[in-house]
């Protein structure tokens, strides 16, 4: 049975006389923690019964491996708080998000596959991973292993303790931790692939537009947190993550779906919290905006946010073909997205642009290619920018499949989608070094 994630709730204040507003209780301000100087990695290898083990302890994470006769080839990785985030066994990869969601992916002769274990299957996997960490921990303690470099005594203790923390993150602990996550975060709908390991903070909940027929990621009404609410949320995130923030702290992602749609005056207050609590200027802040509301901000607005830490803004173009955008009820047309990207670039920031492959099926295919090439070329992307190609993944229950069926629109085959991506790619022209071009597969996302 699938475990339900409890929604984030707003805590009320008790004991307030009728007609009088209580003054918010401001939490003591904890400034951004100083940057810890990472120590050199520690590597250990040795024997665990009939298997060989390896341990790699780094500032941000811990990785252990097992291989030998009668033993699966296994690589397990956790963050420095012991939270499992990756498990590989004999060609099968599992990734766990802080939310507790598990992704299982593998590839065989029939192609690539994804599934999302829940309930007993998820518990079994978590217990299996914990047993691997425990077996390696006991082997390191008993065998001693070969250490590189030879560490001081306290570094040995640190390594043993880190492996033991991974061993303690079994099914029961993982379920309890996911429940803690749900009290700090609303569901995290999606992130750009280069931000999967960012530190997410949520200045907004829901999406400011819920009209896109292909999307089922956000179900809450759009809400912008007050500076007080956001400050409390950021502090709760810091407390929850603890040393997990080492793995996820290289950048800050400002959520949720369309956070930069917030009016500029309120955004400056949000960024002030990020600077004070999370050292935003050093880490950098990344966020989504849609082309429709993004065009309402000027180059000066984006430049001002850049001075407070904003580094890259992601825009879902989806298509440059306006009739297709109208068909899928995307707010705004391609011209607004072009205008938004140009303003972002003129402000000295980077852009991330997302194009959907296969959207509109056979009916819109020709216009989708031609006008998407024109739109992306007009954005003048370059070094430091991202261009993502994301295959359409029809989601049951969304409006898009019903509209496509009603319009006798045939979905493109995998080969046709690959050809469409190549056609768009081949038409792109960049004045200088190109942006990084990559795949954006929403099935790969967990947080």
Secondary-structure-based class equals alpha/beta
Helix content: 25-40%
Radius of gyration: 24 Å
In the sheet with the most strands, the strands line up as 8-7-6-5-4-3-2-1-9
CATH superfamily of the largest domain: Aldolase class I
What percentage of the residues does DSSP assign to strands (E)?
Answer: 15-25%
Model description:
This protein is of the alpha/beta class. It has two domains: 42-174, no CATH class; 185-444, Aldolase class I (TIM Barrel, Alpha-Beta Barrel). It contains 14 helices and 18 strands. The chain starts with 41 loop residues before the first strand and ends in an 8-residue tail after the last strand. Strands 8-7-6-5-4-3-2-1-9 form a nine-stranded antiparallel sheet. A seven-stranded parallel sheet has the order 10-13-14-15-16-17-18. The chain is globular.
Please name the defining characteristics of this protein:
single chain; TIM Barrel; 447 residues; disordered N terminus; nine-stranded antiparallel β-sheet
Q: Which secondary structure elements does this structure contain, and how are they paired or packed?
A:
Elements: E1 42-48, E2 51-57, E3 61-68, E4 71-79, E5 84-89, E6 92-96, E7 102-108, E8 111-115, H1 119-143, E9 146-148, H2 153-168, H3 171-184, E10 199-202, E11 204-205, E12 223-224, H4 227-241, H5 245-248, E13 252-255, H6 264-278, H7 280-283, E14 285-288, H8 291-294, H9 299-307, E15 310-318, H10 322-327, H11 334-346, E16 350-357, H12 365-379, E17 386-391, H13 399-406, H14 414-426, E18 436-439
Parallel strand pairs: 10-13, 13-14, 14-15, 15-16, 16-17, 17-18
Antiparallel strand pairs: 1-2, 1-9, 2-3, 3-4, 4-5, 5-6, 6-7, 7-8, 11-12
